[in-house]
Amino acid sequence: MRIKKFLVAVFQSILFWMLAFFIFVFIKYNGIEYELEVYTDDVLNLPIQEFYQFGLLLGAIIGVLYGIIEFLFDTYLSKRMVLGVNIMVKSIIYFILIIVLLSIFSVLIEEQIDIDLDNDRGWWRDDPFFWTTILYFSITSIIFSLIKIANDKFGPGVFLNMLLGKYRKPREEERILMFIDLKDSTKIAEQLGHEAYSKFIQDCFTDLNSVLRKYEADIYQYVGDEAVLSWTTKKGFRKNNCVNLYYAFGAKLKKRQQRYLERYKITPQFKAGLHCGKLMIAEVGTIKKELAFHGDVINTASRIQGLCNKFNTELLVSKSFLDRSLITLKYEANLLGDLELRGKKEKLEIYEVQRPVVD
Q: What Å distances lie between residue 103 and 4, 97, 129, CA to CA?
């Protein structure tokens, strides 16, 4: 999973930086007939295609290196550094990277078009092209970071939908919702104290986030020790994604059980409720804009999860969800009965989902 995440990050970085340097060449050189003046009376006519080729190659190389650096920092170093130090260290690395790459490229250009460029040691200090490139790189790097932050904030694909105004007007969609909540949260909070409990929840949700992409889930919101996950019905029902995610999360917590015991002397367990149906999605707020879900599906999914304590179960689903899913191909679904949910007049068939018992 980590390898896939790395490859996706590098691929996105390559595309972004190739586009960025294509635009850079277009702005700086397109339409200019004569590009370089050699230190003689001659003027060298360099076709614009050559600049685009060098620009795309430079963008691809920077994209690979940039993607690797960002991935390493995000995975191993970001949590250990304050944001200011993180930015400063990466800026120094990128500054050195640009010097090295432009020095190498100047040598390649010399060999290809047989001219003598000023690329001796320290050439970059007084070179206007270098500082123009640094300024452009800094601005585009900030844009890339802002896009990444926005994508992390809203979830993969959601930021693009907001840019395109997809949810500017309330839009009806069919969604699967999972409310997933920490078992015995009050008892654990009293045992750990508020500071340790907050770190405990952070670690739990970090582990939850590590399995989201594999099962194509989006985070709708975090509420205290509860997370609300969302799928389109196509993604959620595909390969049992929404149910498999719950058990993958449990497996992740079990795998890290020793670490939780060493840090908190507690092994976390979560309970969840699943329901599906039509709801409205709309952009809300102006100062803090976000997507909001409106509809009975949300309340019903929450109420279903709330029954887990009553029946001492881990995962409950509604009949409407069960009828459309592939749960029975891999799991056992046992009817608990027609249950009355708090705040609802009509009763609902609720099923407990369990792994099959292996003899």
A: 33, 10, 12
What burial letters (b/e) apply to 139-167, b meaning 16+ CB within 10 Å? ebbeebeeebeeeeebbeebbebbeeeeb
Give the pLDDT confidence of 290-341 residue by residue, as tens digits: 889 999 999 999 999 999 999 999 999 999 999 999 888 889 999 998 877 7
Q: From CA 175, how far away is CA 297, in angstroms rounded?
A: 8
Alpha helical stretches, state H, the chain = 2-29, 48-72, 83-113, 128-154, 158-163, 185-192, 194-212, 233-237, 241-255, 257-264, 296-306, 308-311, 319-324
Amino acid at 10: V
pLDDT digits (tens, 9 = 90+) for 212-241: 989 999 999 999 899 999 999 999 999 999
108 CB contacts (<8 Å, ≥6 apart)?
Answer: 54
Cα three-residue angle 239-240-241, rounded to 5 degrees: 90
Closest CA to 352 of 309, 323, 307, 315: 315
CB 349 within 8 A of CB 338: yes
Cα separation, 172 vs 278, in Å, equals: 7
Please tell me whether the overall predicted TM-score, pTM, comes out greater than 0.70 for this model: yes
